[in-house]
Records
---
Amino acid sequence: MYNVSAEDSDVVQEPRLSTHPNEIYDRTAIDAAIAAAAQDSAPSELREQTVKILQAAQIKGRAEIASAFAAAPFDAGAMTASYTYLTDGMVKSALKVATTYLHPAPGNAPALSVIGVGGYGRGEMAPFSDVDVLFLLPGEVTPWASSVIEAMLYILWDLKLKVGHASRTIEECVKLATEDYTIQTALLEHRYVCGDSDLAEQLDETLKRELFSGTGHAFIEAKLAERDARHLKQGQRYVVEPNVKEGKGGLRDLQSLFWIAKYIHGAEHSADLVTAGVFRIDEYETFKEAENFLWAVRGHLHLLTNRATEQLTFDMQVSVAEAMQYEDSEGRRAVEVFMQAFFRHATAVGDLTRIFVTKLEDMHVKSEPLLERLFRRRPRIKAGYSVIYNRIAIDNNDNFLRDPLNLLRLFEEALRTGMLIHPDAMRTVKANLHLIDDTVRTTPEAQRIFLDLLLKHGNPERALRRMNELGVLAAFIPEFEPIVAMMQFNMYHSYTVDEHTIQTIAHLAMIEKNELEEELPVASSILKRGVNRKVLFVALLLHDIGKGRSEDHSILGARIVRKVAPRLGLKQDEVDTVEWLVRYHLLMSDMAQKRDIADPRTVRDFAKAVQTVKRLDLLCVLTVCDIRGVGPNTWNNWKAVLIRGLYRQTKRALETGLEDLNRKNRGTEAKKALRAALPDWPKKALKEETARHYDPYWQGLHVTAHVAFANLLREVDKDKVNIDLHPDEDRDATRACFVMPDHHGIFSRLTGALALVGANVVDARSYTTKDGYITDAFWIQDAEGKPYEASKLPRLREMIEKTLRGEVIARDALKARDKIKKREKAFRVPTSITFDNDGSEIYTIIEVDTRDRPGLLYDLARTFAEMNVYIANAVIATYGEQVVDTFYVKDMFGLKYHSESKQRTLEKRLRQAIMDGVARADS
């Protein structure tokens, strides 16, 4: 609070106001203005005049505070103290007007005291914090007191303050607080604001004597349970749009610590946590730094949104980073630098919470019952360790620190026994990270311990996460430090880079334990056959270590591997394999999601890059873990089918020879499968069907699609659109097959129809029969990324047919729908367009990497149609706000686009279509 007394600890520094008090609220001048208004106004008009005077003062004061805060964007103490000072001024003026002019006190008027409670009582206010006040009375509410309180509240409400209020006696406060921990917490931070000071003092003495004099055990339990429930609701510490106040590692966690400390230690200021022995001085400094940072973020968030906003949404992350004067650095946006600082402070809050809770256990946890202690079977603890509350603790810090390798052995012992590490032991580790130097890093025993943590105990993510939070991982592998708490500012990644890395290793451990065998049959079978586990775990640990720099993170990461992997004790051939895996860790994902894996050239090129089944196995498992580690909903059946298909085709090619990958072989197999799937068809009809399609059709579709097209073509009606909509459960999508007479621009019209019904196209293939029909297949998902429910398919069909009949013009109808959500507008995705004439034998591959938005595929397809470009198929890969649309195309003469001038012309038109669409989306 801003009125810290002189007797406070030397550690406490009185928060300054952001500017001179009179610039924030000149009470003398304001009281004079109100007195003048009282002389000229009737009592019925005075309240309105008072509000006008206070409103002008409020606007001026808020502007002064905001201006000072903008100039010193990290000075949260001055900001919160200033808003409290301003609020106090308005509350005091409101009381004076109510008791002096509107309802003068009669001779026998009872005492009335205005007490700030909660955050207002603590003296910490953000720009739009609630104003929680207690009107304290010596007895029942009298008519006079009721009139004063009502007048005050109306004035404060007219000033647009969000006032929470209660009118109670001291006895009522004690009684209600005993029954309700929310009220008890609010009273814990009560502060006299104005009115009768003697009554306020009586409240203070009574609360200390009757409410806050016990052990606080029930209060502590309630606060910790409340914290757990809040974390469950808000999500983990690394959610990409965190809640500054309520989220894990946020302000409420710090406040909960202080509430408990105030209850059991009588702490008046956070510095008292040092005096009470809860925190060391360096931990207290961490507490203050985190508190100051989070309050600064909250203050800017309120000012930028002009309301009490606590969620750091994507758009606000950019704005807050700018307000706090963060700048772009080394290939990273300012918002990413800012969010890394945010997550590091949130992690620090988690560390402090663990330390604090441990101290509570020391004071409050009862000994286990004797029988439970006798019969519980615990693993034998190695010398130098003990068990406190079922956590591993260090017997003697001096002995422990004589051998720096113990800083690693502690985590090994925790994994071996399955026990948690005692927070006091964590403090010892964190305070002595400097002991992990180059000598320790290159010691064979250190290498053994670290690799055993990864490979031996079956739970590597637990050790890695704790090592990472305590700084041990970055100390042992200094190259890891830059990615700690590093946010990737996009909608694709749900975690920071270090947490993503640990998540990938967690998934690998689950696959090894056969926990995902049904979901991941290929990856599970690879691990059962056996791979070099050391190579795989180290490759996952280092695969993103090059992120956050201007250079391609795969290339930089591979270079880093050459330094780190030998230091971890890997042999040269293992180092080479890890380096290759890190360099090409995106290759399989890109090939599967951005290329047509039905094209023999795709598989052939991938097989040439991989070269051996051993590398293919390792890369496949790494790819699966990498995708699954991006976020809880990133992996789906669609990606599983693509990765599985590419793996099986490539493995076959590597084992039997690349010559197996030719169109003729695959076409023969596909026709054979179709005949088997249509046993009731006459031989003549089957012969006509297998003869009417060109080779690409047979290799590009599954037999289920061939059956659907065969049935549509057998009963084709030239005068209408022939549609088959079918859930493709294996791919988490709805397959939409269209048959109609071929004509120019049909692919564009189909994409427009699908965009109009809100369908997201995830794959598309277009073929022409020898007798002049178009056979187009689209795989579509709804807005939730799921197949359409069967009940919605008739409506979907109706809308598509209307659009294709011309009853709805897609270009016009989409104008009102091509909007990007406000919170998503902050993302930057530069547009990249590439032409590849080597990736396919018969098509030019055009890859458009740009910002995703509604109607994008339609805009691109329409541009291709206007340029007389034939689209054979389109592969759509979406990564959050980024999309990579890959088109396999020919020109109007059936040739590839070799001419650079034609490529430039086409690229220019595509870029213009993208820019026009962006302008519509932003309008």
Note: The CA atoms of residues 141 and 167 lie 8 Å apart.
---
Amino acid sequence: MTEATDTAPGHRYTAALAGQIELRWQDYWADHGTYHAPNPAGPLAEEGKPVPSDKLFVQDMFPYPSGAGLHVGHPLGFIGTDVFARYHRMIGRNVLHTMGFDAFGLPAEQYAVQTGQHPRKTTEENIQTYLRQIRRLGLGHDERRRISTIDPEYYRWTQWIFLQIFNSWYDERAGKARPILELETEYAQDKRPTPDGRGWCELTRAEQRDIIDSHRLAYISEAPVNWCPGLGTVLSNEEVTPDGRSERGNFPVFRRNLRQWMMRITAYADRLVDDLDRLDWPEKVKSMQRNWIGRSHGARVAFAAGEQEIEAFTTRPDTLFGATYLVLAPEHPLVDELTAAQWPNAVTESWTGGAATPAEAIAGYRRAASRKSELDRQENKDKTGVFTGSYAVNPVNGKQIPIFVADYVLMGYGTGAIMAVPGQDQRDWDFAEKFELEIIRTVQPTDGFDGKAFTGDGVAINSAFLDGMGVDEAKKTIIEWLEEHRHGHGTVQYKLRDWLFSRQRYWGEPFPVVYDEDGRAHAIPDSMLPVELPEVDDYSPRTFEPEDADSEPSPPLSRAADWVEVTLDLGDGPKTYRRDTNTMPNWAGSCWYQLRYADPVNTERFVDPENERYWLGPRQAEHGATDPGGVDLYIGGVEHAVLHLLYSRFWQKVLHDLGYVSSDEPYRRLFNQGYIQAFAYVDSRGFYVPAEQVVETDGKFFFEGEEVKQEYGKMGKSLKNVVTPDEISENYGADTFRFYEMAMGPLDVSRPWATKDVVGAHRFLQRLWRLVVHEETGAVRVSEVEGTATEEDLKQLHRTIAGVREDYAEMRFNTAGAKLIELNNYLTKSYGSAEVTPRELAEPLVLMLAPLCPHVAEELWRRLGRSGSLAHGPFPIVEPRYLVQETVEYPIQVNGKVRARVTVPADAGTEDVQAAALADEKIVALTGGNAPRKVIVVPGRLVNVVL
């Protein structure tokens, strides 16, 4: 506790009083719908009352309701958005601010496997814990707009959006998605040629469907995945350790192809890159997305290999004369055909791996590679590989070059084959050194270079007709040569791969499709949505022997036989179909939640166009045609910089192309908050001890008398350093907690938590409370006589108003708090011992405090005789006349050190400032009455005297 309350004056602002005030005002806000933001249309519109044209949509990244609840690090961004939203609400804007829950996910399912308790029960209990905690913090949310991804009325529309993507294709000529029916019409009218040139009517219905399905934005493919037999599920790359084992359970993981749903996000690669320039996002996040998409300009080069042709992509076709071998990914479809029957003569053991035949070597290598994660394959410096026994022809010089299989080449990027140029690529150099392969430099290294592979730009060497050219000219020339001789062509390549959209889990959105007897997918009609999850007895997937790489997934939903087999009439009579037993990934629900926030109770549409345009539409008048639309401010951690944001952008662009939304980006402005970290303490055994019981003495730390070592990092249960907002609110009040978190530093910077420092924020609120409320009697000690405040009081006040308004608008909440402390200290010094505080000073101070500490501000506002809530303002307005400075103080530097200060009229000219500085008695003493060598006056800032 901050202080003993039994001896405190009866009306002091204590933690107990703060708690009473906070709970009372939270009830008031809920009862009066204080934070309800009206829509222009639908049930959330206010009848007969137009919506304000000035709106603001503020959104927090979807929290996952874990069983542990919140610790003090979680609400940092939530409080930041709340302060920002409250300020803008007070200046008259219609503010949409709410919070929902990204509630599907693996943790609840794992708990269900362990306990047999339905994941919905666990998740909903966790949601209630979160709601209790965030309500205690006084977050100003429109609770009518809360959503949860696990609610059928929400995932009905997630399934509906999936079907729009399924029933769409990307028209490269138009540069946008179009309905699949339009593609069928183009084929039927022979406006688009079929792959083999036959007329559309000559094809069977199955052949027609195969062509159409190959264009869909959501399609089924044999995709390489991380299959873990020991867990019975596919894992994401992030769930696989560098040594190719599952993070959970430490089981072996194998790369293998499985029939999976995919999203054709690669069709949008160029738009996803180019439109980043239209977004107000941190440059770091934009760079991460650009790197993830990995757009590269280069060439595809064809290498003849017997009857086969290997196509390799390279960003440096100018180095083609230095290609001394080819490398295929272990999964490359040509590996089997290029594997020779026996080894050629004079092949070293390093090329064969000690195997009797190439087939034996390749099979063993593939097995080993299947156990490695993609990250490990890319970053492992120990290069491995095996010779296929075959050779290819370098088209520029006719040389026979060996073909290897190596796991540092991935099928997901380029063609799954590379032309290896060891002279210009360090990975290729390492491989070539290990396997004693030829190395030819094709770019002249810069003077002084003494490394191995030279990866910089330079003049072409050892490259015949390219010699002497710079990189750009050489690239252009070789591409023209390749195209002229039909050995390749210039192209653009991407690292981005289509989005794997299937999960072998129970706790996720069911797919709104069924399969016929031929295994072909059919969309469920809108009238049959949502497809709800069935009840099952066992939530765990079927597991297998950890080494059984050939096992087949058997998800939990496959056990719900009555649900899987279903008879439906899809327009051609009742037939038996089979449902998909996989579920969507948890990314699905978070791809579009900003749209549902805008219209959360609409039962006819996922969002009404009028509501979408109002809250998310492009701001044409303000920003012109380049404004992408989207949420006005989106705050969350940088850990979601790539996948969540990329997937959301993809879904938004598809919906925009199809005409469902006016904005073609989901988030106009992005802000990444920092993190609150904490000290942890380790004893001599290496065990963590409870941080709250550690005592500091003379710079050392002790737990129960034993010295312990201090560490700094994340806050978490395992480190025994968790501090919850509940206990801080209990001991100091939620407003104190809010003020302290915002005052700790800039919102985008990580900072250490120190509970002992929270008392400083609490004492500030106590001093401010005393300016308005008499601690002994509870009476309001505010003067009703106008003109009581002095001229200097009003200057201090309006300087603070100007600074705080700017700080709130720019999310500099820590400096806004500092300015309020400074003003409060000034007023306390002037009026703390007086009987009353001038109302014209007290009221603006209370109003400026409201975004940071809404409960105590509401209470003081009410005690000042104001009715209702101050949530909608007014916010104090600056009177410019009080900002005019009459005098300016100049520091005077002599040879670079400040030696004196002089105050002059604010409108003093340079000569007057110089004269005043040289006349200062300290400067006269230093100069000895002699003229200085130089005097430099920086207007409004300083005088520099050079002796």
Note: Residues 791-809 form the longest helix (19 residues).
---
Amino acid sequence: MARYSSSDISVLLLCILLPRLSADEAKHLNCEYDFSMADMEDVTVYFAATFPRVLLISSYQESLQIVDEALLLSRQRQNAAPPSTHSFAFLRQTEPETLELSRAAEVFQTTLQVLKNKARQRHERSVTPPEMLSWEDVELIAELSLCLPHATICQDDRHNMYRSISGSCNNRQNPLWGAANTPLARWLPAEYEDGEREPKGWNQGRLYNGFQLPLPLEVSKKVLKTSTKGADDLYSQLLVEWGQYIDHDLTFTPQSSSADCVTTCEKTHPCFPIEADSIIPGARACMAFHRSVPACLVNYGTDIRQALQRQQVNAITSFLDASVVYGHTPKMESFLRDLRGRNGKLAINSELKDPAGRAYLPYVASLPSACRQDLQGERVECFSAGDSRVNEGLPLIILHTLWLREHNRIAEKLKDINGHWSPETVYQEARKIVGALHQIITMRDYVPKIIGPEAFDHHIGPYRGYDPATDPSASNVFATAAFRFGHATIPPILRRLNESFQEHERFPPLRLHKTFFSPWRIVNEGGVEPILRGVIGTAAKSVSADMALTDELTERLVVLNAPQRADLAALNLQRGRDHALPGYSDWRAFCGLELIKTRDDFKDVANDRQVAEKILELYKHPDNVDVWLGGLVESLLPGSRTGPLFACLIGKQMKAFRDGDRFWWEAEGVFTRRQKAKLLRGSLSRIICDNSDIKEVPRDSFMFGEYPSGYIPCDRLPSVNLEAWREERGRDLERCGSPMAIENGDFVLSSASGKLVAHYSCYHGFNSIGATTIVCEGNRWNAQPPLCAGFTHRAQT
């Protein structure tokens, strides 16, 4: 065994525990060993020595038992990744970085579970994790399973100028706060049935306050399945669509694909099937459900209990940073940019343009794609954007298309104004402006309408500058419950309107289920304009406890390659239990709201007393009510579309997004005072005018009005005057000249240090060789720029 190092032996154990790795994964983990009995014995001896308090393994035979147990826990891992369980998950492509970390987290969790089970068998009693392992033990297991965060290097000058694509280094003291692929924040402790990873409802017969939790499908059927009967005459449908769009800029928690959960009704990690409340002859007894992937350790200090609990990952950045446009990894960003054009623009579709010659989003890289097709027309593939969920619905595609065009429009104007700017500077400055407009539209025009002006003042208030002590990470309750309030505002019909904002002569209204993953309807049926007019010129669905989710979502949500359709309400309830969210009453206490102690208390805060009665008949006790359901049926605050609980949770989260973001548009040094004043002139209505053929819009497109009342010509809308970004060529640049352009990379200029500095960086897939920073000294640059070489080239050099 001398040929193995101590770390090799520990890795061997992890490889044995999860032997269903692919060849590439096994190679990456150094699992290519020929195990002999002696090897196995040495592994167990080393492991026992490493964890002296545990002493779980004492022989080869016992180690084989552990292998068998681990295989039992992960026996479905060898299956190919299954189809997603519902159309809202369909095509949610998880980036390789996220997949790698989620696999590492699965290794970490499974290893801990095996150790825990063995400890309980050995001691014939329950041994809690803190008694079983020290923090050093936990860190070692995390390190060996590759489940520790990668080292983050923050480049002072470049990371002061522009936010990173991954969100890292926003906070100097805590560089992973808000970054992609980090855990969703816990505002209240997780409530797992075993304290660590088993969700509520995992163990049949488990009682809560003396009662079993009702089945999510039963709750949906008896409380939440309704037909839409009302409309809100104050707000337009665009308000609802913006909510989904901006949600995709803030949170994305992928579902596990390590097992086939479509063909089983067994509760075996990561499958947590939704049990049917009635059995129909020949039908499956459950609805498929994949648990969210676990997250790896990040900044848990010495809290072993929390470190050992299953946490869920936010795969994208938590910042309101327009990552929905630009992506959240260097690879995504490079794919979405027009790097060959060296113009600072985003890539556009090379095959399609609208009738006016405007751009469409580029196709996905892998063709043919899985999007639905026009049976009478040519193929239109799935579109690609900064978020993989872009094709979920037609309004989402429209909003993504508008912002692609807006970036390119801004980039072109910035290049005209500042001819000396490098393509990288043009791109980053345009990205910075687009990000600021996302923040302004969301915080100024959207959030006050959602939570109400009084709740906005109370929970968010005026901006007082960047606070490095504020963690901007998206919280679990926000992502899994509070911001899902919008599911109750989705209409069953998508209207398409003509230039007079009347029903379109050629393109009739569409049932919601016919809009999923159908980009062909935009390309072949009139472009973005009919749908844009439809969401502007249609009143939003009213919010009411007795009219919650449309049956388009509870009865007609498509399940791919499965024998039944899905139910979004049941999926939401099950997801909250999967994430171990505390109940409705606990969150009301968290927000300082009046406690719900009796059935009458619950009826008093609910929008509809009959609905409250139905809920209590199912849950039996107010403390058992799931937080998403409880928040959904509360009476709305004045001037809002949410009750006090969701207003609190959304408000607290939005304040954290704002105050904890070093690059928030109002933060000191991000924009000049003149630039800030110009940015405030921006609006979603103006974005629509500048990037479509629509000629008249409401001043605030989130407000509903019957055309033509309240509509104004586009040329009367204020716009962001980009002259505020004009930058004169400095004396240093005149003396030294523009830095040399390089292949496969670019530079940005900075004078923050008192000298003109060029900061070079290489595009994804290339590494720099040579100095990445050169300085203008005298009348020349003090060094040659770096070479950006591909990984293979670099290895040879």
Note: The radius of gyration is 27 Å.
